[in-house]
Amino acid sequence: MSSLLQSIRHLRNSFPLSVTQIFLVDNSEHPDWGLELFDECAVDQRELEVELRLSRGHGNVGFGRGHNLVINELKSTYHLILNPDVTLDEDCVAEGINYLNLHPQTAIASPHATGFDGKQQHLCKTFPALFTLLVRGFWPAPWQKLFVKRLAKYELHEMSKIEPGTGIPIVSGCFMLCRTELLQQVQGFDENYFLYFEDFDLSLRIGKIADIVYLPSMRIVHVGGHAARKGIRHLLMFVKSAWYFYNTYGWRVFKQI
């Protein structure tokens, strides 16, 4: 939360803003988690003209449905979908807003991401062959080296690290800076996905009506991902969502576009 507030401070110094709303959707079982976070940033929210709004008590309704609780009532120009495991560079949001202001045909901007180890995380992807997902998510690292070209193609490694990349098919839901009007036009996330692939689906649907870009000047640190390492429950959710995704968009087993 602190890096988000710092980014809002920088944004407020760069653009004229009305009150900025931060929606915290609390899907956790911890009854005081959201309230504790609000207390931590009470001083900053007054200084920055930030309105904190907490949605809680609905239980774990899933990633997409949780976000839709907010998306359906937005009256903003832009909306940032953000995971709690993401840290933002100070100028991150300002860079994204500036780009979206200059490119009205763009629906979503995705950032340059690294992990805490400094290695780049490739949040932009093309449509995945099922075999590619199996190799990337479940095979041991030495075996993955046999398919370096396949994985690089899927993760769009050829994109510039300096210039924006346009026409991106799929971006990660850990950070999506969205044009609110278009996000609402596609009715937000498909709530049939409880977890995993909901960001793939949203990207593909919104990409039919507007552009999705990779913006390397927006920089974040992200520590999430890796469903295969989170235990059997996450693995089963991954498989269920994958089944629904491929039944919706067509099964591509081996050929990677």
Descriptive key words:
257 residues; alpha+beta; Spore Coat Polysaccharide Biosynthesis Protein SpsA, Chain A; 10 strands
Morphology call? globular
Structural class: alpha+beta
Summed over residues and divided by their number, the pLDDT gives a mean of 91
Instruction: Give me the oligomer status.
Output: single chain
Put simply, the count of helices is 11
Sheet having the most strands: 6 strands, mixed
CATH class call of one domain: Alpha Beta
What is the string of helix and strand elements? HEHHEHEEHEEEHHHEEHHEH
What is the straight-line distance between the termini? 37 Å
Beta-strand residue percentage: 15-25%
Helix content: 25-40%
Unreliable spans: none
- Write the CATH homologous superfamily of one domain: Spore Coat Polysaccharide Biosynthesis Protein SpsA, Chain A
Q: Could you say what the CATH topology of one domain is called?
A: Spore Coat Polysaccharide Biosynthesis Protein SpsA, Chain A
- The tally of beta strands, per DSSP, is 10
Overall radius of gyration: 18 Å
Based on the coordinates given, report the CATH architecture of one domain: Alpha-Beta Complex
Task: Outline the secondary-structure elements.
Elements: H1 2-14, E1 20-25, H2 33-40, H3 42-47, E2 50-55, H4 63-71, E3 78-82, E4 86-88, H5 92-102, E5 106-114, E6 120-121, E7 124-125, H6 130-138, H7 141-144, H8 148-154, E8 170-171, E9 175-179, H9 180-185, H10 198-206, E10 211-222, H11 232-249
Parallel strand pairs: 1-2, 5-10
Antiparallel strand pairs: 3-9, 4-10, 5-6, 5-9, 7-8
